[in-house]
Amino acid sequence: MDVIKEYCLLKGRAAVDEKFVVIGLSRGASHAIDFALQYPDMVAGLVICAGWFGGFDFPNTTQEIAMFGRYDDFIGKGDAQNAAIMSVRIWGQGTQGDDGRLSKMVGDKIFEWCRMISQREIDGTGGSAIPAQDLTPTAAKRLSDINVPTVVARGRYDETSTNEAMRYAAQRIPGAKLKEFDTAHMINLESPSEFNIWLDAYLDQFLR
Questions:
Q1: What is the pLDDT of residue 127?
Q2: Using omega within 30 degrees of 0 as the cis cutoff, is the peptide bond preceding 137 cis?
Q3: Which of 17, 68, 145, 157 would bridge with 97, disulfide CB 3.0–4.6 Å?
Q4: Alpha-carbon distance 166 to 172, whole Å?
């Protein structure tokens, strides 16, 4: 989102007549929604996947809360290695997924990414160490203001609160369509071909 804001400043707000299809995955979904609400004249379409947004609060299960608690314990101890292993369990296998569901290749990639993220969180330079900034009023109260073609994706084995957030967004954004993938949180990493086919079909309307 900062790239587009800088682009606007560079060219001058009045000179910008381009419109963008804004795509956000995970935390990026909240940024995409916020941008669509703040700059509606610059948004042609919206894609949000396995994410959440300000003002929406749906509780996870007791089991899921315990998983996140273990992750927080590792972060508190400065243990990026075990925090990353826990992240693979949460975001890779999925809080609602069975043991052995995730391929080793995908799990290894997620582990490497999450080890770096966990270390930044321990150092106070990334992850949840950076507080989220919500719009006022919050995005959850303004989803019906989004008036562009919108598609929403969620992973079947993802955490409860994220899946409920995506269901809620699909219900509140006029005309939005919800797609559920047989994955956990990392939809495009687990099922790249299916995800790209789905995304290409959506983007085709802007290329005609």
A1: 73
A2: yes
A3: 157
A4: 10
Paired residues of 180 in beta bridges = 154
pLDDT reading at 14 higher than 60? no
Domain positions in the chain are 2-57+134-206, 62-129
Predicted structure pTM score: 0.91
Mean pLDDT calculated for residue range 12-19:
62
Average pLDDT, the chain: 93
Beta-sheet pairing, 20-25 with 177-181: unpaired
**H or E segment at 150?**
strand 150-155
- Expressed in angstroms, the distance from the first to the final Cα of the chain is 26
| Yes or no: domain 2-57+134-206 corresponds to CATH 3.40.50.720 | no
- 96 touches 159 (CB < 8 A): yes
For 149-200, write each residue's pLDDT tens digit: 999 999 999 999 999 999 999 999 999 999 999 999 999 999 999 999 999 9
From residue 195, give the alpha-carbon distance in Å to each of 145, 149, 152.
27, 18, 12
CA angle 54, 60, 64 (to 5 degrees): 125
Question: What are 200's two structure tokens?
Answer: 């290409």
- What is the gyration radius of the CA atoms in the chain, in angstroms? 18
Q: What CA–CA distance (Å, rounded) separates 127 from 118?
A: 7
Is the C-alpha dihedral spanning 155, 170, 139, 60 positive or negative?
A: negative
Question: How many C-beta atoms lie closer than 10 Å to residue 82's C-beta?
Answer: 16
In tens, the pLDDT along 99-115 reads 999 999 999 999 999 99
